[in-house]
Amino acid sequence: SLYYSKTGQWHSFLSSFDPDPQNKNHIFITLCEVTPGIIWAGGYSSGIHQINKGDLSVEYFAPSSFANLNIRSDKYIRTIIKDSQGSIWSGGYYNLKKIDLKTLANAPARERVLFGNFVQKTGQAPSPLEWLVLHKTDEKMLLLCRLGIYSCIYDDADNSAPHTWHNSKARVWLNNEFYQQAFSVEEKKLIILSVLSNKGNAAVPNAEETEDYVFLLSNDEVRKYLSQGADSKVMPTEIEQTKNVFHEWWTRSPGIENCSASLVNEKGVVDNSGLYYDKGSYLLRPAVWITASK
Prior knowledge:
Elements: E1 2-4, E2 9-11, E3 28-35, E4 38-43, E5 48-52, E6 57-61, E7 77-82, E8 88-92, E9 96-99, H1 101-105, E10 112-118, E11 127-136, E12 140-145, E13 150-152, H2 169-182, H3 185-190, E14 194-198, E15 207-212, H4 219-225, H5 238-241, E16 249-254, E17 260-264, E18 270-276, E19 282-284, E20 287-291
Antiparallel strand pairs: 1-2, 3-4, 4-5, 5-6, 7-8, 8-9, 10-11, 11-12, 12-20, 13-19, 14-15, 16-17, 17-18
């Protein structure tokens, strides 16, 4: 709770009496003011709640998403402290993590919008999806989901080579199951059916164009719309964190072999060489073009 000394009033955050709590955790054991007016609260959950005293807003994130390595998510956050150099240390059940706020500050501020709903927390109903506005004209906007909303292999071994975006499992899931679950009838009317070029490389020829409502960014689009580093890093939804997934996300570009797909690694850098399409569960970060004039 925040006490206003001038008015003698309290304001509560993350209360069990809130009609729409951020998550089921209401036990907090550590607080740290990381920058003036910004409080981080840790407790019996795998992430940290960020409280903004200025606008009274609350956000949730996983501290492991700011590490340079893929590490196991904590069961709880026991201690958060700020050292003399301005770095934040988070101690939990499995890890001790150092978070450099200067690195985070290098990520550009982007407009965000809420669009669609999807299950993001275990045992809870679908909640609004938050998207970054990557590009905007008078007619349309390119949106990229802020979080990795689902972890999966890129394609099935049963599909015939080459394992490109055109016939991938990722494309099928995004344009069927995700599209149907995440968007209402009215929201679907705003989503533009996009014609996508699918560029190859020295080892894999160009694939045919596809028409998709929901898609993954290509390597070229990641470089065009996102700066390499903090701006391109991703963290998973709370429900995906429980699976101990890698904090890396697939692109729709092929890797250096016809059995691999490219991705953005945990450092926020495009990995052109890629990984085998059916090895490991990496995150899907959906993108959509929507009509901006309605």
